[in-house]
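Saturday, quiet lab. Running sequence design on the structure tokens for the scaffold JK sent over.
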């Protein structure tokens, strides 16, 4: 089955056309500057081809059409016509409590996505716009929504409830939702395969570490806790996001500097994290270079991030009553050997023993712990697009 995977942002749209039978990416690319002017980057991996086009994209509908034109082009396309696309899989950030799994898109699903907009006001509207644009251009093609939050719907109440008046949960659905669920689901399944054991028998801690980071406890294939919360702002310090902090800090700073809540949230989301601590960059590669050059604040930012992840690994091992494997994934987790080693070092008391030589790698599946380590430490590149495509193929195939 050929599945087109769509990840729509407010002014951008990522896409991949995948053959789910062979798990092959036929083409992929990015539409940028939607609503401004429009730029399409189109790649065909089998031909090692990369092309860029300036195309007017006043709305997402024109962006989708430009994607379809590129895919069916006689010069650089990979299919003869749109009819070869069997289904479209859409990444949707927030499904609230309504969706514990991916769902075929119909009127009821669209209505539920609209209801979830207050839970993800920056993301869900863009996702909905992408779906509607595809429906306008491909009205007869089945479509599936794959939710970032769905995997974490298995968390028990003690994990997701906040210690607020209970009516805020009952009436307003204020609770921990968690994100990056598609990534955590993918790498935990791959970890089980690499270990040659049924996932139902394993306790796995997955560390999705990048500009946005989250850590999850996965017991028997089900998420039982995760670091992101009601929004993706919670958890460990990230590129520009603060992660967990004392809520009283907001009142203190807002009063002192005359900020309203919008300004405060802009600080927390875009000026904090490792950028805020270091004053250098939100890019971990820049921080490492600065730290090597003697920048103490850059080193402090790295230390704070790594320490926060390490604490969660210990907490989740305690929550599950043990751990069989720790997985590192996403941009930093996959590519930064120093970060992996720093987080895993000091966990020998719980059975972790690293292999420095094995850990000196990046970007491919590998066991980076020592052969005699009781807890296996794995590097697994994530593939959220593959998960979206496979979910879509399964649901449409039914």
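Result came back. Writing it out in full:
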């Amino acid at each position: 089955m050929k599945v087109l995977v769509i990840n729509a942002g407010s002014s951008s749209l990522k896409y991949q056309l995948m053959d789910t039978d062979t798990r092959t990416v036929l083409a992929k690319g990015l539409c940028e500057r939607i609503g401004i002017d429009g730029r399409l980057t189109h790649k065909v991996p089998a031909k090692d081809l990369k092309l860029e086009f300036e195309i007017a994209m006043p709305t997402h509908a024109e962006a989708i059409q430009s994607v379809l034109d590129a895919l069916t082009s006689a010069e650089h396309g990979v299919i003869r016509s749109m009819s070869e696309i069997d289904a479209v899989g859409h990444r949707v950030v927030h499904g609230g409590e309504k969706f514990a799994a991916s769902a075929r898109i119909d009127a009821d699903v669209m209505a539920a996505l609209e209801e979830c907009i207050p839970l993800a006001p920056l993301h869900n509207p863009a996702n909905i716009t992408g779906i509607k644009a595809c429906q306008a251009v491909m009205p007869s093609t089945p479509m599936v929504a794959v939710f970032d939050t769905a995997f974490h719907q298995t968390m028990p109440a003690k994990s997701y409830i906040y210690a607020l008046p209970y009516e805020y949960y009952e009436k307003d659905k204020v609770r921990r939702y968690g994100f990056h669920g598609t990534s955590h689901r993918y790498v935990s399944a791959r970890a089980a395969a690499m270990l040659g054991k049924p996932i139902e028998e394993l306790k796995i801690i997955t560390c999705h570490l990048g500009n946005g980071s989250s850590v999850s406890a996965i017991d028997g294939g089900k998420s039982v806790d995760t670091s992101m919360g009601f929004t993706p702002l919670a958890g460990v310090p990230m590129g520009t996001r603060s992660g967990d902090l004392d809520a009283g800090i907001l009142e203190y700073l807002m009063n002192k500097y005359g900020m309203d809540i919008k300004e405060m949230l802009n600080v927390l989301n875009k000026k904090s994290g490792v950028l805020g601590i270091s004053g250098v960059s939100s890019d971990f590669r820049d921080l490492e270079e600065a730290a090597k050059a003697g920048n103490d604040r850059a080193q402090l930012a790295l230390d704070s991030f790594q320490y926060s992840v390490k604490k969660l690994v210990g907490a989740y091992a305690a929550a599950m009553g043990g751990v069989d494997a720790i997985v590192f994934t996403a941009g930093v987790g996959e590519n930064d050997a120093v970060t992996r080693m720093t987080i895993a070092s000091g966990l020998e008391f719980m059975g972790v023993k690293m292999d420095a030589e094995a850990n000196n790698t990046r970007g491919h599946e590998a066991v980076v712990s020592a052969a005699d380590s009781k807890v296996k430490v794995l590097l697994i590149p994530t593939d959220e697009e593959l998960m979206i495509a496979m979910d879509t193929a399964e649901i449409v195939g039914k």
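Notes for JK: The chain has 15 helices and 14 strands. The mean pLDDT is 94. Ask whether to fix the surface positions before the next round.
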